[in-house]
Design brief:
The chain is an alpha/beta fold.
């Protein structure tokens, strides 16, 4: 059954993560995605290893796990965009595509004749999505942007990590490149919205996505807390800034996350913990009171939680309907019965590794289900196919290869 974007063709000029993540989402949704890569080297992330995918004998291949995470479902075309012939082929492709994704520095593609204003002339319906560190306007538009620096500049690291007055205190980045990933997600949404607009108007448009903008947007309640008070929130480790108890507690043999999102859940928690009196204590009777007396409540509950084993707490709290959970490593994540039932880990055939394990898309459709069939491509795997579809003859393709254009 075709996906919801079946019939949409995407020209993916992006590399590393934010742009490729957006393009992979579109591929998951059924779009045909043609990934343009530099001859010989390809996407920078192809070199981001180890780890590398293993072949059937357990030996390293030349395919990085990093590249595999963001490029399934795509065709790989090698093309030198610095050469006039490469630029001409890219223009031919753009004229036949619905969407173009790019994450070049501001103004770079204009020099190649591949900017939005230039390609709009050959394809007025083109959805042209630019992904940069700081956007196409403002004094920083020409600066490069990388996830780590954006996590710092965008405020995330100021609210992530343990408090400075505690052991291990100080700013921390997220364990994943969240600025890249969230920008890719916003780009995917923007492209789909632009396609819906084009379906009504026939007009394409330019989409300007920035890592800094995207990270600021997902500051969510923390951003709203600042805007409401004028005070920058600090780091609270694993504590929630607006709710308590909503944190990690040590038990006799491990740690447990407890998430009491309202007063009723706090009361249930107290009953399970054998300290019903806390739910009626004037200091803790309502969430606002608990926030004001967070330190004392945490001290009391920490003494209670350490008296039982982790699995005892999880069983008792789950039975009472109190949200809780362990802190899993990734092996434990994919072994969880729920993860197995939902098929979060999947395998696809791979031309170099034999097969590759990947994380399934979380998007589930009742009528147009996501079909995972195409693995991350090897470098230039589909070059000949894509060029033949443009009408290039075998002799022309051979000449392009000889000249290093593809």
């Amino acid at each position: 059954m075709p996906g919801p974007l079946e019939g949409i063709r995407v020209l993916d000029l992006t590399r590393v993560l934010a742009g490729p993540w957006a393009a992979q989402n579109l591929a998951d949704l059924g779009a045909e995605v043609i990934k343009v890569e530099r001859p010989k080297k390809g996407d920078d992330s192809r070199a981001f290893g180890p780890p590398w995918l293993k072949d059937a004998q357990g030996r390293d291949t030349a395919e990085s796990a990093y590249f595999a995470c963001a490029n399934r479902g795509k065709k790989s075309l090698t093309l030198d965009l610095a050469q006039p012939q490469g630029q001409a082929i890219a223009r031919e492709l753009a004229a036949r595509c619905d969407v173009l994704l790019e994450n070049f520095k501001f103004g770079d593609l204009d020099r190649y004749g591949l900017g939005y204003a230039q390609l709009k002339k050959v394809n007025p319906g083109l959805i042209y999505c630019s992904v940069t560190g700081f956007g196409h306007t403002g004094p920083w538009r020409e600066r490069p942007g990388y996830d780590f620096m954006i996590q710092g500049m965008g405020g995330l690291m100021s609210i992530t990590g343990e408090r400075d007055d505690r052991p291990g205190g100080g700013p921390q980045k997220a364990g994943i490149p969240i600025a890249d990933l969230i920008t890719g997600m916003y780009a995917s949404i923007a492209v789909c919205a632009a396609l819906a607009h084009r379906a009504k108007s026939g007009a394409g448009q330019h989409l300007d996505l920035a890592l800094l903008d995207s990270l600021a947007a997902v500051l969510a309640n923390q951003g709203a807390n600042y805007l409401a008070t004028g005070e920058s929130p600090g780091r609270l480790g694993n504590d929630h800034p607006n709710i308590t108890p909503y944190q990690v507690f040590k038990t006799a043999d491990g740690s447990v996350i407890v998430a009491c999102g309202n007063d009723n859940l706090f009361r249930k928690f107290c009953e399970v913990a054998g300290c019903r009196e806390l739910a009626d204590d004037a200091r803790f009777v309502a969430n606002g009171k608990r926030i004001a007396n967070r330190a004392e409540l945490t001290r009391i509950l920490s003494e209670v939680m350490v008296k039982r084993r982790m699995r005892e707490w999880l069983a008792a709290l789950e039975a009472a309907g109190v949200p809780c959970g362990p802190i899993n490593n990734l092996e434990q994540v994919f072994a969880e019965p729920q993860a197995v039932a939902r098929g979060l880990k999947m395998e696809l055939p791979h031309p170099a590794a034999g097969k590759v394990s990947l994380v399934r898309s979380p998007m589930r459709f009742s009528e147009t289900p996501v079909q995972h069939e195409v693995p991350p491509p090897t470098l230039g795997q589909h070059t000949e196919q894509v060029l033949q579809e443009l009408g290039k003859s075998g002799a022309e393709i051979s000449q392009l290869r000889a000249e290093g254009i593809v």
